[in-house]
Amino acid sequence: MVLSSALVLVGLLGSMAPSAMAKADNKGNKGSGSQPTQPAASLTCASGSVTSNPLAGGSSLSYTSCLDPTAGNDVTSSISAPLTAFLNETLGDWGFDGKYEGGKNSAGPNDLGFSWVQNGKGTGTWSLAKTIATPFVISLKAGNAYTAYYFDGNTPINSGTWATFDQKDLSHASIFVGKGSLTPEEPKTSVPEPASTAALALVGLSAVGLVRKKQA
């Protein structure tokens, strides 16, 4: 009688084991023939993008290198240390030339007229009022972090596209340019008007006449 009861108990335990093991596997615990749940891969700057459109036409140009998402703000009353290091590495001698936020542009010394619009969730376009053909960096601030994208600037451009690394709405974007590659403006030479030229000529002739009278 005791032996029969023991066999019945073993049978019940055997029938329950597969179900219990299946429940354990569904929770991500180790079990026969199952793998633990893998954590999602962390986002990088390559999770987003910035492109530029050649004025000559053709395919959009992608960035050369980028700065991975960095917590905090890129541009406030100063440039953040990680972004400054990235700019020093990519552009060398560089200058801040515009921050666009809330429909307003904080222009830099070259007044490139930098601006952007958002067309979808975390995506949009950017543009410049002036054409440049110089190395530049565009930084994107979204959520609690920012990224930055470097272009070698070998092709004249004045527009492009952007996408945030986390698909969040863009808070603001900024542009930086390499100073060494910017073409300096030619100095403006003032040309005297015809009336002024004629007046100067009369003064000269009068001076010559006075000299001759004194010699006589």
Structure overview:
The protein has 216 residues and is an alpha+beta fold. Helix content is 26%, strand content 34%. The protein contains three helices and eleven strands. It has helices at 2-26, 81-90, 194-215, and strands at residues 49-54, 61-62, 65-71, 94-101, 104-107, 115-120, 123-132, 136-142, 145-151, 157-163, 170-178. A six-stranded antiparallel sheet has the order 3-9-8-11-4-5, covered by helices on one side. It starts with a helix and ends with a helix.
Amount of beta strand = 25-35%
Global mean pLDDT = 77
Q: Report helical residue fraction.
A: 25-40%
Rg to the nearest angstrom? 35 Å
Uncertain segments: 1-10, 15-34, 36-40, 183-193, 196-214
SSE-based structural type: alpha+beta
Terminal CA distance reads 159 Å
Give a short account of the largest sheet.
6 strands, antiparallel
Trace the largest sheet across and list its strands: 3-9-8-11-4-5
Q: Would you report the number of β strands?
A: 11
User: Tally the helices: what do you get?
Assistant: 3
What is the overall shape? globular
The sequence of SSEs as H and E is HEEEHEEEEEEEEH
Helix and strand topology:
Layout: H1 2-26, E1 49-54, E2 61-62, E3 65-71, H2 81-90, E4 94-101, E5 104-107, E6 115-120, E7 123-132, E8 136-142, E9 145-151, E10 157-163, E11 170-178, H3 194-215
Antiparallel strand pairs: 1-2, 1-10, 3-9, 4-5, 4-11, 6-7, 7-10, 8-9, 8-11
Question: Which key features would you list for this structure?
Answer:
216 residues, alpha+beta, six-stranded antiparallel β-sheet, five-stranded antiparallel β-sheet, 3 helices, 11 strands, 34% strand, globular
